[in-house]
Amino acid sequence: MVELRQRYVDALVAGDQAAAVRLVEDSDADVRSLYLDVLQPALYEIGHRWEEAEISVAQEHLATATTQSLMARLAERFVGGTRRGRKVLIACADGELHSIGVRMIADFLDADGWDVLFVGALSPSAAVADLARAQAVDVVALSAALPARVPELVNAVRVLRALEPPPVIAVGGQAFAGDATRALETGADLFAADAAAFAGQLATRF
To answer: Which residues form the signal peptide (predicted)?
Structure first.
């Protein structure tokens, strides 16, 4: 998978969307592995290259758009499980634009039998809480890619905690750099480093 990931990154940087898509779609690897071992780390590398001024913002945006389009096609490969009769709302922190990670979580949980309400980027805390209450969701999963958005997550957790009954609240994203202790300091109930880990935690809890 390392070689496939690197070739995918190279195609993205070159702006060759067709080659990037073909590389992944032609792979016979499990779709979950493609998400976690190819697409996610590839985008981390793309983001790092942009931060180091090795690629332009246009290249970074093209890589993101290509991956989003590819995920929409790969999602058809997920084999759906028995429906659980449980609802999960998935959203980014208020002000957070990076939504591919939460889209991955949504695809994993949908395949695992959850009814998924995917809100995505730029999700105001009050609006998320209103929807969570109206839909009587069991779980709300919130994400932040940038450390600067963590205070927005803290606020969202506070607002959600005031609901009666409150949902199970999970947080994640690159903002925490895999640090569960720091993530749970937001007041959330759960933290998971990736979509597979989160799906596993929910399967155990519910």
So the answer is: none
Q: What is the pLDDT of residues 52-88, one digit of tens each?
A: 999 999 999 999 999 999 999 999 999 877 899 999 9
For residues 123 and 152, is the Cβ–Cβ distance under 8 A? no
CA distance 57 to 53: 9
Percent of the chain with pLDDT over 90: 98
Q: What share of the chain is helix, strand, coil (3-state, %, to 5)?
A: 60, 10, 30
Domain boundaries, the chain: 2-77, 87-205
Contacts of 168 (CB under 8 A, 6+ apart): 138, 139, 140, 189, 190, 205
What per-residue confidence (pLDDT) applies to 82? 87
Which residues, in sequence order, are bridge partners of residue 64?
none
Task: Name beta bridge partners: 91.
Answer: 120, 142
**CATH superfamily assigned to domain 2-77:** Methionine synthase domain (1.10.1240.10)
Condensed to tens digits (0 to 9), the pLDDT of residues 97-120 reads: 999 999 999 999 999 999 999 999
Whether 2-77 and 87-205 share one fold: the answer is no
